What does this fold into?
Amino acid sequence: MFIFPVDSDTVVHTFYATMGDTRIEAMLWEKEEAQQLCRATPGMENLRYLQDQWNLWGLFFVCFLGTLPPDREVVISLCYVQELPLQPDGAAQFCWPHELFPRDDYIRRILCKEEVFENLHFSIRLKSAHGVSHIATNTSYTPLQYTAPDQTSAEVSLKSLPWRQDLELLVYYKGSHALSAVAERGDPKAPPGSLLGDPVVMVTLMPSIPEVVPSPGQLGEFLFLMDCSLFQDAQNTLLFLLKSLPLGCYFNIYRFGATSKAFYPQSVEYTQESMDNAVGRISSICPDLGGCDLLGLLRSIYSTPLLHGHPRQLFIFIQRKISSEEEAVMAEVYRYRDHHRCFCFPTNGCDSFNLSQAMALETKGECVCIHSRMDMASEAVKCLQRALQPLASGISLHWDLPPGLEVSVIRKAPEMIFQGHQSSIYAQIHGQAQDPEMGEGAVTLQYHVGSQSFDYTLRFSLSPSPDDRLPVHRMAMMHLLWKLAWEGTSRAEKDIRHSAVKSSLRLGVPSTFTSNVAVRMKQRDAWHRDSLPPESSMLSSPSCNLVPCQLLWSHGCRPVRFKSTKFWMVQKCQFFLEMLGRKGPDTEALTQFSASCKEQEASPEEQVMEEPPAFNISWDWTVSPLSTRLCDFSGLRVVVALQKANGSWPLTTALASALGLSKADIEGQRPSEDVPPTAWATVLALAWLHQYKWKVSWSELLEAKACRWLRDQAEVQLDECLESANSLLGCFVEPTVFRI
It folds into this structure.
């Protein structure tokens, strides 16, 4: 059986295997016809059984090859097109999963490692209109050999393969990283005016985003989605997140279980009133141990219009399994991936960990496994810091083509592009140039970062060298098919469905309207199709046998996919933390933490909030005891709860108590009568928070809000106030704290 992982940016368009005089070929059929053929295919029930039994997760191309006779070999030909992710330095990253290399146990039984490398060849051909610069990989390779005088094409071979690791290859091209374009000729056999018959341009956007302070109106829409079974443990996390948001942004909080419910009918502006209201409602949410309808909640959120100038970012906290709707969830996330970003926080041992990783990867977000309540608050605020980084917005493309040519955008520019990320635009060029000598076009990228404007212009050839593989056309077709599927399901127009099916069959690009079928036949009976597969009646020939072959969504626990380096690191760290969780508890740390807790008198409300709920039995509370005992968390929580939305603190008895002082002491140490009590209290709270910075670094956003507010108080002598605060608190915080 051949298994190949597929992600949303990969198109498997050709597969066949040859064993002696027998050939197995996969092809696309219209879905209704393919379903009839599948019902007549022996062994399909085994494929569906394995779908739930494999220790694999995600989408796979699967084809049964049968039994290989002794002393025989099988030759497999697989053709696929993949949109490669770009690294921050502009390198294109290619990853080949190690699962597709010969299995380690098989090698040990039959061959030594050296013999495998002698018989396993990996040659790479590189091509770029902008020129190939150099490569980097995690194994040894031959020197780069240029095959064109202008260095637009090159070849390289690997001397060995990484043992028990994915093969990772970085390709560095010449030219600008912010904007690049690749044009591809159409198929001369296809009719002009069709996508296949016209040239197609792939434009890659990777804007250069400087570090600037976001201006009001570009702060974002932050949506916090909380699994109801986590609400008691997540109260502190939601408190820290709400207090860390900047004025002027929009936010909402959703709880989901068997049903979902929002704090507000739609996102509200972050003000003192809305923040107080949300904080007051956090503790009123009751746990729900029923179902987990994340799909319904996401559909509800995606159906609401985006707020202009406010990029939508989701923070999803999840502990339970999303039943059997993982594929449907990913389809929704993929559909709107250009309109939002997901930060996912599955708990340790969560059955939806792989889904969380996939959602974050698809939307250029981040997935962090949570092992304790302190981890949850810490990691969530760190991700919020990343979510508040500058981004490119107001993205637009302007085309300059010779007279007579027009452009139709297949996949339009996204609403925004986050720092270090890319987006690919596909466009069809149709018409006839009035002047055949004008063989160049140009595209200009314009965008904003805060109040700054940027633009880049790139010229590209409209007469590229022919490429029979049509990789750009196939990727463009994939996006067009998704678009047609979404429009077709809403309008159910027959012409859209017919166009999607015809295009899909012609290029071998899967769609929601088609399905794979494989046929085993003798080599002499193999057909060579130019456009469409043969009639189903031909499969009734005695020399043809149907073979199980499908794109399957596996529900196992181990993801195998083309992953970015960051995604790979998340998996490795997850494995390490799971091993760490199997060790015995840190007895000394727990003893010290328990003793420190007994020395403090917590209020009845605090005791209830700190008590782990009975239903939360899957968490490993011994993984991160150190961060919990490094600071007075109950005092920290009170200080955070008292901060205003603008970043200031009022001078109250509650604040004084949380700082370990009396209100009289604080008022008596005020530097002068000219210092407003609120400014003096804010400097004190800032100094108190900053002395814990090495212990709880995730207070940085709270400190930054306080510093911005203090800098706006022109009449306050900050250095003098800080000196008095250091004396009163018995600490030493330098004046550089005000430059956070």
User: Anything to note?
Assistant: The longest strand covers residues 10-19. The radius of gyration is 30 Å. The chain is about 30% helix and 25% strand. The longest helix spans residues 471-491.
